[in-house]
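Backbone-to-sequence.
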């Protein structure tokens, strides 16, 4: 850690209390606090080989061991890197989903075109069948008319034949009477 770094004082100082160095009871009040390193001193601790850190939070009254601090810049960088990696994975997943949806839309478009073509062909076949049925209907009516005319003619002939038959009988009957 260096001057200017943002740090958090760890929240478990009592667990970290090292008898060789020792944490003053007043320092426990700063657990979890965020501070900036304003100075780095050498020769900290009993054997004077550790670095000590002076913070802006306590008016530089206390020298803090590196073991008692968390570098927030590193923590934030790690968090940001983790978050960036997570977001990158999610974006890749979204891109895969978008590509999949685009393919589905393209397939739906192709199916839609095929259905339109099939619908057009069905309409053409239907129009042909309707026209064919209309022609058959027309022929049927013509045949019916001809058939009706022929029936009328046959009926007329039958009536004439009956009248002739009746006339013949009358004539025979009159001849017999003469």
């Amino acid at each position: 850690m260096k001057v200017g770094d943002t740090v958090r004082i760890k929240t478990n100082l009592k667990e970290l209390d090292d008898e060789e160095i020792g944490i003053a009871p007043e320092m426990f009040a700063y657990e979890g606090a965020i501070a900036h390193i304003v100075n780095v001193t050498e020769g900290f601790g009993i054997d004077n080989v550790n670095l000590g850190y002076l913070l802006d939070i306590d008016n530089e009254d206390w020298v803090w061991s590196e073991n008692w601090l968390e570098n927030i810049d590193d923590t934030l960088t790690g968090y940001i890197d983790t978050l960036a990696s997570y977001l990158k994975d999610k974006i890749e997943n979204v891109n895969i989903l978008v590509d999949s949806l685009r393919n589905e839309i393209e397939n739906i478009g192709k199916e839609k075109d095929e259905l339109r073509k099939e619908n057009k062909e069905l309409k053409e076949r239907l129009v042909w069948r309707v026209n064919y049925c209309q022609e058959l209907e027309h022929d049927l009516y013509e045949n019916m008319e001809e058939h009706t005319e022929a029936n009328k003619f046959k009926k007329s002939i039958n009536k004439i034949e009956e009248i002739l038959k009746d006339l013949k009988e009358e004539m025979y009957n009159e001849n017999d009477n003469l």
